[in-house]
Design brief:
The chain is mainly alpha-helical. It contains seven helices and three strands. Strands 1-2-3 form a three-stranded mixed sheet, with helices on one face.
Length: about 180
Amino acid sequence: LAPGDDYGMMREVMRRRFGRLVKDEEAGEAVERPDLLLIDGGAGQLAEVLAVMADLGVDDIAVVGVAKGPDRDAGLEKFFMPGKAPFMLPLKSPALYYLQRLRDEAHRFANGAHAKRRSMDIKKNPLDEIEGVGPGRKKALLHAFGSAKGVSRASVADLVKVDGVSQALAERIHGFFHKS
């Protein structure tokens, strides 16, 4: 999936979620199907979800898409249901308020998970993937070259100058960064 491919991500999530549901049902497991599936998005996202569910033979769950209004203003959400014209709920509607809170909580959860994953990705270092480079050698390499990018630009001769880096390890490190 390409980053930012909302439709592709929606398809993938729905395929996993409802594919697992169908698989569990076919295995004879007691599965509780949701009564309602609330989709964060408009007509396009709704169509993608309905297509995946149809492919999987899941056609007994109500699906509603919720799209933010112009300028993403709260209270101007449009609701999309299969076979019906898009509609809006009254501004003071308790149902609208509840659905906004539900959506906001889902966004908070998703954004928190995304931030955590991004933070973990930042902490990853390509040097961690090289056999023979443990925490001590990693620290020495980063001290000598400033960053993993600096290590990647170093020659074998420069790498050997670092404490604890043998000729064989220097060649392995250099080879790791210069695969063809």
